[in-house]
Amino acid sequence: MKPAANLREIVPGAWVWSAFHEKWKVDFCSAAWRGSDGLALIDPIRLEEANLARLEQIGRPAAILLTNQNHERDAEWFRQRYGIKVHVHRDAVPGIEITPDSFFCDGAILPGGLKAIHLPGASLSESAFYTEASGGIVFLGDMAIHSPGNLHWLPAEHCQDAKRNRDSAQNLLGYSFETVTFAHGAPISPDAKSALAKLIAR
Q1: Short-list 160, 164, 175, 71, CA closest to 116
Q2: Whole-number Å distance between alpha carbons of 41 and 34
Q3: Number of domains in the chain
Q4: Domain presence at residue 124
């Protein structure tokens, strides 16, 4: 997969980038949130050098947050480059292919001031990260996919438990947010909570 060349800010403090994975035929999407302690990199894939330099100008990378055990992606490369820690839900083991530095549980406050929301179903360790800043943002993993004009659940054949995945999504409706980023697909902003509520109601 080629390094991404499309770093962009979607709301104040949140940036996204993506690249097409030739083997899996899907976009791999990453995000960064600028907190008071630096940048929290979420499911990061490599950026080409010009965009990496832009990211470094935005803030100092301070931590890597993984939404599940399958999203190691280029976490090791970022860990080595910046000397930062990889954080993942404690249920990521066994299954994760790298050695995380820190494990979190539901409700933990992570680097960047992000709150962990455990959403088991797509995988046991599936988690989202939330901030109330900028109208509320949810950084989502595999629970749902946003294809052009189509927000849909992760297909059942790729879920550890498809029903549990849908049930877990209900937990997000207790939060106030306008923006959602995805591990696969373009962000939705504004009105992201409304879009997610419609998906849940189908």
Answers
A1: 175
A2: 9
A3: 1
A4: yes
